[in-house]
Design brief:
By secondary structure, the chain is an alpha/beta fold. It contains 8 helices and 11 strands. The chain binds zinc ion (2 copies).
Length: 249
């Protein structure tokens, strides 16, 4: 049987919402979708710090506007390394969130770190999250990767080129037994140059994302996936370069 035809998907798999304390008020799920559509993105992931509570609204809004939205999270490990956990459905993402919340100490101080707003599809505030979302969890990197995989998700180390919360700066290297699906470089590094300029990522597939905290940052950089459909299974195949799936650079 012939394989399904492959298409190009313009993707930004790391966008914060107004639920991240550092995320702008304007980053409501509804406006993120509008801006993503204007930027011609086919696929995005909402990845707030240590939480997925704005992902469901964004997924529903994305469906209306023709933007595929994955629920994700930027987890902060006890080593103070940021790591993306990407899922297909809300249910495993919620289970990941429960695991993270159980290991996330502290309370937010909005006046110091910023507000953490859960919004609905009409841009109304539903709640403020009281947890210290910007904080580090008690979870080691290996625990986070293992749990993400157990729940069917993908695990990528964030902004590996950056000093703050990037694994190479924090640990000096990527542990050989860390079962990452790939790494992300920040918008400060061109995807075409990533393997040449960032030491230590040679054996990993690499994506770039906006890591947007402001609407204006959405669409500044993106990754093009050549795959059959915008799903976690197909992204995984693209990262592994299986069946013609790949990342176009
Ligand atoms: Zn980060
Ligand atoms: Zn981020």
């Amino acid at each position: 049987m012939a394989d399904r035809p492959l298409k190009k998907f313009k993707a930004d798999l790391h966008i914060h919402s107004c639920l991240s304390p550092c995320g702008d008020w304007d980053m409501s799920p509804k406006r993120i979708i509008q801006k993503s559509q204007e930027a011609g993105l086919d696929l995005i992931a909402i990845c707030d710090h240590n939480t997925i509570e704005n992902a469901g609204v964004a997924m529903r809004e994305g469906k209306k506007q023709g933007v595929q939205v994955l629920p994700g999270m930027e987890v902060c490990s006890k080593e103070e390394v940021h790591i993306l956990a990407l899922f297909e459905e809300l249910d495993p993402a919620r289970q990941m969130q429960a695991y993270v919340y159980a290991n996330l100490p502290g309370e937010n101080k909005p006046e110091v770190f910023g507000c953490q707003v859960v919004a609905n599809e009409n841009d109304e505030v539903i709640a403020e999250n009281p947890r210290l979302l910007i904080g580090a969890t008690r979870l080691g990197l290996h625990d986070i990767v293992e749990k993400t995989h157990e729940l069917g998700g993908l695990s990528l180390c964030c902004h590996v080129d950056r000093p703050a919360y990037g694994i190479i700066n924090q640990l000096g290297f990527i542990p050989a037994d860390l079962a990452l699906d790939g790494v992300e470089v920040s918008r400060h590094v061109k995807l075409t140059d990533a393997h040449k300029t960032v030491a230590g990522i040679e054996k990993f597939s690499c994506i770039t994302t906006s890591d947007a905290h402001f609407l204006a940052d959405i669409g500044k950089v993106w990754t093009v996936f050549q795959m059959a459909e915008p799903t976690i299974a197909e992204i995984r195949k693209s990262l592994l370069q299986q069946g013609g799936r790949r990342i176009l650079v």
